[in-house]
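Listing S7. Sequence submitted for prediction.
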Amino acid sequence: MTTSTRTARAGRALKAAALAGTLIAAGAGSAYAFWPAGGTGTGTAAAGTMQAVTVDALVAGDGPTATLVPGGTADVVLRFSNPNPYSVQVYSVTANGPATADTAHSGCTTTGVSFTGTAAPLSPATFIPANSSTLLTLPGLAAMDTTSLAPCQGATFHLPVTAEVRK
């Protein structure tokens, strides 16, 4: 065997070994890459605002079942209107000023009428459904003392109240 034949065979063996090493290192045609990723940024969110729940006294069709007499008590009837897209709970109702008689009873200058607020939280719990109104009767929370004047007979009394409602 000549030197050039040996060199040719050694060159072919070297190429075959290099090819085999490449195939083994390549994983028989599969590849794997890993790029770590990271980042920073900010996000925002906005809280909605609860719309005011309104409280109205008697409206057409609403009526108390008891009437006030000097020395007695009667129910307070309130209509709550909830314009929110979720239900709210009436948490408490408190007095917010003196009682006044309706305009047809202008001589009723001393009403003798008072309103006792509710305990907080109101029991039993009262919920007003979303986008609706609810009639709430507070039993025996209006009182009339004996200082009430005679022209107050037959009057409807307006009781300013503040209601606390919660989502």
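Caption to Listing S7: primary sequence and predicted structure tokens for the chain studied. The CA atoms of residues 23 and 104 lie 105 Å apart. The first helix runs from residue 3 to 26.
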